[in-house]
Amino acid sequence: MNLYFSTKEVATALGVSQSSIKRWCDAGDLEMVQTSGGHRRVSMTSLIQFLRQSQRLLVEPKRLGLPVVEPSMDINYEREREQFKQALIQSDEDAARAVVLRLYLRMERISVIGDELIAPVFTEIGNLWDCGDIQIYEERRCCEICSRILREIRSYQPILDENVPRAIGATPPGDVYSLPVGLVELVLREQGWQALSYGCEIPLRSMERVINEQKPRLAWLSVSFIQNRETFLNEYASLAATALNAGTIIVVGGQGLSPEMRRKMDYYMYGDTLRHFELFASLCYQSTKATSEASRQEMEAVIQSFL
């Protein structure tokens, strides 16, 4: 896929004049880069962010390798789930990608796409595997296809300033389910966090080390499976204590954490849905920004007192 487009290509895809594209670029509404010859080029990431912020739809999206989005079509998640499930089971990656990107281009939040589309579809796929209707390789293939789609969406999210609050996440040893931890990363990045998922099967001792070294504001643990409950609880207790000393907020989620398990754990929030993570993360982000701004003003006042 071409990651950069000329103003003419973007104008054709949007159904507007080339001068409009140049005007938006010059005004900073649509980010662009200039070639050595002085020509404007618009990246796919900049274009998609512009579409989401301006709520515009592409007239000819296929010219840019994007799916068609009908402006008058209401979002019907029951229909979208069936299309997505069938595309995954049939290994039709283009069709599966089209379903997710259509929703993303319709300005749906990642939390909604995850809760209303991806999570229920993979619950159905898991049930099909449990019943023997599909093989394990087919279930894993579905996961791989979805993971690639999520990585593509991540590439379309804006690059965030290094000064924004940081967040890290992972799954514990034995937990190979990459979709939940990856979705939380996308949700947090959409909220403005400098979020980074370290992936699956990360020893909790390693997470402690990262927290000690990087002092992230937030750490999330996605737990779909636990190898040994006693070992997990002991190592988690150490992780929670380290996070507390570092000023890191720990949030957890996943079907591997039963109410009984959670009663033995210290954490700030347990999320049943991505929406829960989104709301909590938004609150933490605003609180962190307010604290940072207050600290900045205090420092400026101290500096002024010495002038």
Automatic annotation (TrEMBL):
B12-binding domain: residues covered: 164-307
A Pfam short name: B12-binding
Gene3D superfamilies: 1.10.1660.10, Cobalamin-binding domain (3.40.50.280), Methionine synthase domain (1.10.1240.10)
GO molecular function list: cobalamin binding; DNA binding; metal ion binding
Organism this protein belongs to: Polystyrenella longa
This protein's name: B12 binding domain protein
